[in-house]
Specification:
two-stranded antiparallel sheet, 177 residues, 2 strands, single chain, mainly alpha
Length: 177
């Protein structure tokens, strides 16, 4: 089957666009989060768990949601809850001003789209060497902790990709990095 009919290629292109959009939305959300942290500091209560660990929460309801029925026995001072209400009000005001919740939701939707497209790509059989290269490219983009990751299997996968590209000079330029 010619590469022009390989169903993996339009999926790969859509995935690349979705990833780019998700990266932009993640950067936007992180920038807003940084401004919020500058304005209000860390907004939360640190709750010590019976096993020695801890969780962070904003309100009494958050504590109950995180630790369930054990919340009644948690060592959390009432003053911490009272302070949390003030912090919650500050968070809500900063959120209304900066749009953090909206940015976080947009990022979540974009990341869900990336996951859905990636799942479709993995489930779609490649019918050309270019399709195989597209899937390998998507794997390297998704899985490698960085473009410089030096631990197994990332350098080896990049070497395999380079070998495949040499064997298949007709690969689209957008697949060559």
């Amino acid at each position: 089957m010619p590469q022009s009919q390989d169903a993996t290629l339009p999926l790969w292109r859509d995935l690349e666009v979705a990833r780019s959009c998700a990266r932009k939305l993640t950067h936007r959300q992180q920038a807003i989060e940084s401004v919020m942290l500058e304005r209000i500091g860390v907004a939360g209560i640190r709750v010590l768990l019976p096993d020695g660990g801890h969780v962070s929460a904003l309100t009494r309801e958050d504590v109950r949601e995180l630790v369930g029925d054990e919340a009644d026995g948690m060592d959390v001072a009432e003053g911490a809850y009272a302070g949390s209400e003030v912090r919650c009000a500050r968070v809500a005001a900063a959120d209304a001003d900066l749009g953090y919740s909206a940015a976080l939701e947009a990022e979540g939707r974009a990341l869900a789209r990336v996951r859905a497209l990636a799942d479709r790509l993995w489930a779609t059989p490649a019918t050309s060497l270019t399709g195989v290269l597209a899937k390998l490219d998507a794997l390297l983009e998704e899985g490698a902790p960085s473009v410089l990751a030096g631990d197994l299997p990332w350098p080896q996968l990049r070497a395999i990709r380079a070998d495949l590209e040499k064997l298949h000079v007709a690969a689209p330029p957008s697949l060559r990095r």
